[in-house]
């Protein structure tokens, strides 16, 4: 496997077709096809779904896994070229769940870029249970997981803890901002799995999570569903604060509140100086983070 093969594969996925990849890389479509076939033959895998009459590109399960490998290959290749050119730049790879990236740390990332010269950030979204494995394998440099674990040669520190609150579509007539759990219709719930402790609490009030009618993976999807004023969701206060600031929702406290969620900063011991500098900066910005996740008060 060589860089031209990886470059071609990534171009196919990012641009959506072999023809666009060929045009982008200034080669023939047959060259792109040959490079793709070479990878598949070398590793005995099928990377793309090939359906007659379908022009769009979709990845197989093997293709999904290979895409992650190809992105890491691309990053390492870029760093090697910079090393050969005498560049001091380094790429710091950060992994976290979607809700932490988008609602808690987005301004922190901007601060890192401005305060730490000669680094690039590679920000990736992963599930909490993947973070520790990726750190242990050095596939990412710093992780933010919603799970606390003990692993050899892996350093774990609590970064923040945040309250969970209820949100519904904004209603100008609302005057009471505390809600009794028993008043909520579980059929109108937008369920996001916030972890084992949350599931246990949820089951106490509304039964197994399998009883929920709408389950979604990311907070970004809440906006469309919350157009219905009868729908409700329980989210971390950082998400609620963002939606409330945009005038989209009212925020309620529950008489029996959910357990708060904690986020842990995870990194491999013995990281390089740039990783240590970024890690130290993030921990030094805890005041800014705590402002985002401060408890909701009416």
What would you say this structure looks like, in words?
This is HTH-type transcriptional regulator BenM. Residues 1-60 form the HTH lysR-type domain. Pfam families: HTH_1, LysR_substrate. The chain is 43% helix and 20% strand. It has 298 residues and is α/β, with parallel strands linked by helices. It folds into 3 domains: 3-80, Arc Repressor Mutant, subunit A; 88-161 and 262-292, Periplasmic binding protein-like II (D-Maltodextrin-Binding Protein, domain 2); 164-254, Periplasmic binding protein-like II (D-Maltodextrin-Binding Protein, domain 2, 3-Layer(aba) Sandwich). The chain has a 6-stranded mixed beta sheet with strand order 6-10-5-9-7-8. Strands 2-1-3-11-4 form a 5-stranded mixed beta sheet, with helices on both faces. α2 (18-25) packs across α3. It is globular and about 65 Å long.
